[in-house]
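Below is how a single chain appears once it has passed through the pipeline. First comes the sequence as given, then the structure the pipeline wrote out for it. We keep one example in the README because the format questions we get most often are answered faster by looking than by reading.
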Amino acid sequence: MDLMEKNLDLVEIQKLEGHTDRVWSVAWNPVSSQADGVSPILASCSGDNTVRIWEQSSLSRFWTCKTVLEETHTRTVRSCAWSPSGQLLATASFDGTTGIWKNYGSEFDCISTLEGHENEVKSVSWNASGSHLATCSRDKSVWIWEVLEGNEYDCAAVLTGHTQDVKMVQWHPTMDVLFSCSYDNTIKVWWSEDDDGEYQCVQTLGESNNGHSSTVWSISFNAAGDKMVTCSDDLTLKIWGTDIARMQSGEDYAPWIHLCTLSGYHDRTIYSAHWSRDDIIASGAGDNAIRLFVDSKDDSVDGPSYNLLLKKNKAHENDVNSVQWSPGEGNRLLASASDDGMVKIWQLATKP
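Resulting structure:
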């Protein structure tokens, strides 16, 4: 049955309280959140310089804070990301460093600290195989780190090209193609022609090619990896597409093209957009609201279009900085983080 025809609601399951400052980002552990019989785990990071690890009880379904990662970062932790194995958590901080934490089951240890950016690190992302890590900073650069044996990390590349603060880095879900977005209003695509080659900027998506007209805050991909959503201070979400088969065949780089723009749904900066495994886009913004969108399935000559599935006003008492769908199939859990210091767990469910 079409999602648009269902009477759906975004139901607040639980507020996760504990951070003493704004919460910038949330990240679901990719392994625990998908395995049957294993409790989902969520990380959140904050202006209070800490990361909190939350776990849902398999019996009560109640979420509790299992541990607090502190005393490593001396300033705001802006971004956190789990490695594909779920064993490592990377944390990007305004103190200019990126921490690598290892999950030992009942506790986490910081096993490595990556230094090199001149100032605030804004975002961190692992590639699909977990062999590389990307970071970006207010220093306008993007760094690629190679994961070596013995908890060592080697800077494999420093990518310059953005003219302003880089807000987010995101690896493609299936290929070693890296994306970055910036205060300079652009999205840049970084690609290496061969495994050992140097990463080059192969495409810049800017206002001249139907891109954003203000700061781009976030990038997310659909499960197939052939579509991307970006969101911006210009109050729009944009959907982009590529010829994924051509890219995966290794023939050459297939450019991303603008498919459509979603506008008029938020009236303040859209800080976060995330695409679920079952093709629902969530957005969170400075208007304290969360919106959900789905493909309208009426591909006209103008290309695909997306419909508003649901709007949740006053989702938080302040800016919504991050929205992230659980990677688990079919459970439709969404986590959100806000300037109000809260993390919330939501479920997309049919109204009774």
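Residues 190 and 201 are 4 Å apart (CA to CA).

See the next section for the split statistics.
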